Amino acid sequence: MAMQGQRGPGRNDRNNDRGGRRGGRRGDNDGGDEFLEKLVSINRVAKVVKGGRRFGFAALVVVGDQKGRVGHGAGKAREVPEAIRKATEAAKRNMIRVPLREGRTLHHDVVGKYGAGHVVLRTAPPGTGVIAGGPMRAVFEALGAQDVVCKSTGSSNPHNMVKATFDALVHTMSPRAVAAKRNKKVADVLGRGPEYTPEG
Q: Can you give the residue range of the structural domain that contains 72?
C-alpha cells in the first residue's frame, strides 16, 4: 500500500493537469473580456474529389469587446457550428485596437480598400447612430462605435467589404498619436489653443 501511495500521477491525472494549464493560457489570451460575436455570412462550398463533390461550409465572423477592439476571421468545416468556431477563434487572434473619439465615433474620415472593396468611413455628431449596411454594421457594433456614417462604393462581397473596413480602421489615428509621432503638442496638431484637452 505504501508503494501505491508513492506512485506518480496516473495518465488521467496528467491529462487533467495539462488541460487545466491549457485552460489557464486560453483565459490569459482572452483577458477575461466578454466578446460580442457577429456572424456576417455563411456559404456552402464544394470540393470536387474523385467520387464526386464534397460539401462544406465557410463562415465569416466579426468579434469585438465593444470598447475599441475588433477582429475578423474566416473558417471552413464540414458542419456549420465547427466552421463558426474556427472563424471565431481566427477573429480573436487577429484583433486590432481602434482609437475612438469620446468612445463613440472615429477621429477623422478615412477610406479603405481591399481588392474590389472600397469603403468610406466618416465621423458623425452624437445621436447619429451607426449608418452602415450589412457587414460594415457588424464591424462597428462589435467595435462599440455609436455614431458613424459608412458608404461602400465597391464590391458587395462580404469578405471584401469587411477587409476594406479593417483597412480603413487600421489607418485611423488619434490626435495624441499624431502629436507623439511628430514630436508636437496635441493643440499644435489640431491648431487649437493650449487649453484644449483631447478625448481618447
A: 36-96
Q: What pTM value is reported for the model? A: 0.72
pLDDT (tens place) for every residue of the chain, 200 residues total: 455 544 444 444 444 444 333 333 333 344 446 888 999 999 999 999 998 999 999 999 999 988 889 999 999 999 999 999 999 999 999 899 988 888 888 888 899 999 999 999 998 888 888 899 888 999 999 988 888 999 999 999 999 999 999 999 988 887 777 777 777 776 766 665 454 455 55
**Number of domains within the chain:** 2
Please check whether residues 111 and 87 belong to one and the same domain: no
Verify that 124 and 62 share a domain, yes or no: no
Half-sphere exposure of 131 (CA within 13 A, CB side): 14
Q: Do 164 and 118 contact (CB within 8 A), yes or no?
A: yes
Side chain identity, residue 105: T
> Do 50 and 82 have their domain in common?
yes
